[in-house]
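Posting this for the archive.
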Amino acid sequence: MNDSFTTAINTQKSTQNWMDVIADNMSNVYTPGFREKQVNFKTFLGGAISDDYDKKIDQGKSTPGTSQSNLFLEGKGFFLTKTADGKSVYTRLGEFTFDGEGVYRARNGNTVQGYILNDKGEIMQGTKSISADLYQETALRGGALDIPTTNIKLWIDPNNGKYLGKYDDYEIKNDGTIYGKADNGKRTVPLYRITTRNFHNAAGLLEVNDGEFLETEASGKPLLGYGEIRSGLLELSNADFKANISYFQMAKLQMEVSNKLISTNKELLEEALRLVGS
């Protein structure tokens, strides 16, 4: 059995780690897309040892973005983006913009994924179309449809300054459909539908960078997302400031107890050495 000194040292170390995580949460309360970290502990005879982190996947509050190309996903799910080598990366931070070539990209350069639509707004799977009702039904059931996605591109014709050479502007609706607008808004044509994904166990996703996740065995395979998309907004951090204040008070008390135990054990050891040497 470990003595009280070892127990106190172990608890002090894990408590310091806990306090660092809490401080990180509190300093990122207003950081768009930040996911709150929660420390787990393993408790045994040698004291409390921190046991990796959990991420809160709950939705954060919305805040105005910098352009209509910024997106806020209301509800469960993630936007699907792709790296240059085709790897799928999932995120809730819709800080998306169109680059100089008209490609829709995330802040890190990943391409935002979408489906190509026909003029009826139906998703195209090769030469076949998939009705919006079937897509919605499958998404609500937590299912998946094997539909290839594509990079979204709204190229601007340098000769006339129009999107795709013929649209004056674009608009993103709540279902994620991107419309090209012409004739002063009198004519709208569906072009793409932004792809969203969901997971049975989203907490099992692997966070590779802040707000960027990869699929894992624990998360399960991606399903169709069904949250509503709000154009011109971004999602703030989901860190709960008040809750983290409470956690910090608990951690502070735990640290004080650990420090007191270490100090007391040190005094006892010094006294024992004094008695032995006298």
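The longest helix spans residues 241-277. Helices lie at 4-27, 132-140, 241-277.
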